[in-house]
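Please go through the sequence line and token line underneath and see whether the fold suits the sequence. See right below:
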Amino acid sequence: MERKTLISAFSIFVLMFSACQKNISEIKPPNVKQAPVTTPVTAPSIPKDGNYDAKGEITKINTELGSVEVKHEEIKDLMPAMQMEFYVKDKALLKGLAVGDRIDFVVEYKHPTEVISSIKKAQ
């Protein structure tokens, strides 16, 4: 009878041990913290103050405010192509211009603002 009890106890131990085992790859040492995953972020670059040549098409003119909305090509070293409103340095620059005109213009950038300092119909 003693032998049957010993075999039964051993069988129970084996069953309990196998049920409690984990895959070794799942076991992590205690007090080990994983470093957070971060995505590097580049700081936005600020253009240099100065004049930038540009090309575009007039989509809207506001002579009262002294502004012109332009769908422009990339302005190298200043900004990507987009449609935006610019103020002009002098409202007189808008005389003779119309919506739909293709233009060559100069953007005067002084951080953080830009204005059109010259504008003419493209040839």
About this structure: The two ends are 111 Å apart (CA to CA). The longest strand covers residues 50-62.
